[in-house]
Amino acid sequence: MKSWNQLFVRQGFIVEETRPNVFDCLKETEENVSFLLESLEKLPASFTYDRGVLSIASRVVSEERWLGCVDYKYRGRGGDLWFRPGVDQPKVKELDTYISGIVRQLNRLGFYTNISCDGHGRGNALLGFIREVNTDKVTELLLAAGVPRIFTRNNRDIRLCISRPQLLDVAEKLSHIEKAWLDRGAEFIREQLFFNRVERLLSIPGESGNEERIRQFVLAELEQLVDFKSVDGAGNILAQKKVGTGVGPTILLNAHLDTVDRIVEGRSIIKNGAIWSSDYGILGADDRAGVAVLLELAQRLQEPGSFNGTVKFIFTVEEESGLIGARSVDGTFLWGVDAAIVVDRRGTGDIVTSCGGYESFCHESYGLLFEKAAERKGLDGWKMTAGGSSDTRIWAAHGIQSVNLSAGYMNEHTESESLNVEACYKTMRLIQGVMCDARNLQRTLRQIEMMQVR
Question: Which H or E run contains 300?
């Protein structure tokens, strides 16, 4: 379930949440505030509006219901023609329902539009810009915000190859971007958006046996990114995505949802550069860091050339209570899996290939694949090593070549827990590098299979 703030941002309203469900609307135009209030009345929702401050007493509604209130027949027809780009603000009610958020955010960042269309479920979304806008910059920005493919026409108009519901996700991501980031490049922007997702994950309680809130968050994030998803009897999330041609290996990506103790609601995250910690109680980076990596990869698998094959995701429950979730996974979901990548190791640079040095998770060649990929990507310090217990043991017991990678956290399960968010992002880049080189991955797995047959 989205928050009121998310619903407003994704629809294009420029308001600031100063306290839970209390919004400063002074930066929004009178016309757009009026449309916002009209939509809340239409729900109906209980709220007050006084001198630019909106307070909502009602519980948040589903996005489907909210869209039904802000949508109306012929909405968006001619709306872009009635404002002066760079001078006036677009009127939300006169923009297409699924692209209004993107239009408002692009205008906020100085990329002034003069035409827009969300495709109406029949074609690609369209954005047009005034002559002064550098559409290459816009393309770079939108790719960083999660649009997998963009076509440019006449250096003025661009078409977004993305579903209408995903346009709302892009609008939300754009809302987190600061103007100062625009000159730092797409990779910098992607990294900052990744950090934002990590912070959101670290704010959601979900100790072993009580993972419902974090499970719902992850399911919502996966909604438009996978072909299939379900929750099994134990509470694990199982998902699957055919990527590229679909001809290639089947890779399992795994992290666990639970934390060993409850994340204290209302606590603060202390940010000392790239090192984050909690001002009270555990940080919860074990294994929210791994969850963040998998969600980022799920998004990037939409991009051309990201991988060829099938990717399966398992987000397990009660890992901290003895790998209970992983042990409960129906073996049929693991059929056909060629290799597994788990993100649940402390520190940085570890490629865990065995438990305690005696219980092997994989053939040495599979571990070396990650070492070599790290070298190619310029990611220093990655080496094979022995480690402790994790869900990796379960997948290896099924005969699946498996590794467990460092996620960047330290001192897990204690109030001294910390997370190196830059190291966490590099873990995602390492996995991306391995998967982008799908031919080499498949060749290595075939060689291992042949050696084992002998």
Answer: helix 285-300
Work out whether the CA dihedral 228, 231, 233, 234 comes out positive or negative: positive
DSSP three-state, residue 194: helix
Residue-range definition of the domain harbouring residue 241: 190-453
Between vectors from CA 117 to CA 116 and to CA 120, what angle results, nearest 5°? 170
DSSP state of 378: T
Across 211-236, b (16+ Cβ under 10 Å) vs e yields beebbebbeebbebbbeebeebeebb
Share of the chain above pLDDT 90, in %: 91
Please count the CA atoms within 13 angstroms of the CA of 92 that sit on its side-chain side. Answer: 29
pLDDT, one tens digit per residue, over 364-385 is 999 999 999 999 999 999 999 9
Please state, rounded to an integer, the average pLDDT across all residues of the chain.
95
Q: Do 237 and 363 fall within a single domain?
A: yes
Confidence of residue 80 (pLDDT cuts 50, 70, 90): low
Q: Rounded mean pLDDT of 180-198?
A: 96
- Token readout for 289 is 């860091």
Predicted pLDDT of residue 357 = 77
Number of domains forming the structure of the chain: 3
Helical H segments across 176-268, by residue range: 186-201, 212-222
DSSP-based three-state secondary structure for 232: coil
Angle subtended at Cα 406 by Cα 400 and Cα 407, rounded to the nearest 5 degrees: 110
- Is the distance from CB of 224 to CB of 169 less than 8 angstroms? yes
Tell me, yes or no, whether 209 and 328 share the same domain.
Answer: yes
**Residue finishing a domain among 30, 50, 70:** 70
Instruction: Produce one character per residue of 178-189: b if its CB has 16 or more CB atoms within 10 Å, e if not.
Output: eeebbeeebeeb
